[in-house]
Amino acid sequence: MLGFAVATFVAAAALSTHTAPDTYPVADTATTSIATLQAARGNLTVGSYSRFGWNHPGPLLYQLLAGPYELSGRREIALKWTALALNVAWLGGLLAVAGRRAPGLAVTIAVALVPLLWRFWDSALLLALTLSQLAVALALALRERRANRRKTT
Questions:
Q1: Do 83 and 118 form a contact (C-beta atoms < 8 A)?
Q2: What is the distance between the alpha carbons of residues 126 and 123, in angstroms, rounded to a whole number?
Q3: Which residues contact 93 (CB under 8 A, 6 or more apart)?
Q4: How far, in Å, CA of 104 to CA of 85, rounded?
Q5: pLDDT average, residue stretch 56-85
Q6: What pLDDT does residue 100 have?
Q7: For residue 146, which phi and psi values (nearest 5 degrees)?
Q8: What is the per-residue pLDDT across 5-56, written as a single tens digit (0 to 9) for each?
Q9: DSSP per residue over the chain, as a string?
Q10: CB contact at 8 A, 40 and 24
Q11: Which residues neighbour 15 within 8 Å (Cβ) at sequence distance 6 or greater?
């Protein structure tokens, strides 16, 4: 089932990327495009520039965006499809971890984060990743705590 969903997603993204009209990035999308181009060329060592005089965390996000962006002929829509894929993966991981412990919390998280899935602004993209990492860390800590309690009793 998951394989079929992934294949369908990839097919829809490929078709959409080749049939969508050309668009030209502006504002945050333009800085994301520039950082992605730098990552594709191997010239990016930090995250994108912030108007507040610092850089966003690391180049990994842009390195992940670079492959599909280059394969599409540097079309802006490829950034959106890649952002959607990353957000769905990270949100899926978060919901898998949270759903095992607190199904109600998982539903709440899903409702809160689903509107952000198409966003590829740096902060929105990293939100689901950060939350999923926190959920995994919390789950591991709780599992270790339970294991330690069993040893002492």
A1: yes
A2: 5
A3: 132, 135, 136
A4: 24
A5: 85
A6: 79
A7: -65, -40
A8: 667 766 766 776 667 777 777 777 788 888 888 989 988 888 777 778 887 7
A9: -HHHHHHHHHHHHHHHHHHSPP----HHHHHHHHHHHHHHTT---S--B-TTSSB-S-SHHHHHHHHHHHHTTS-HHHHHHHHHHHHHHHHHHHHHHHHHH-HHHHHHHHHHHGGGTT--SHHHHHHHHHHHHHHHHHHHHHHHHHHHHHHH-
A10: no
A11: none
Give the other-Cβ count within 10 Å of 133's Cβ: 15
The pLDDT value recorded for residue 108 is 81
What pTM does this model have? 0.69
Backbone angles phi, psi at 49, to 5 degrees: -75, 145
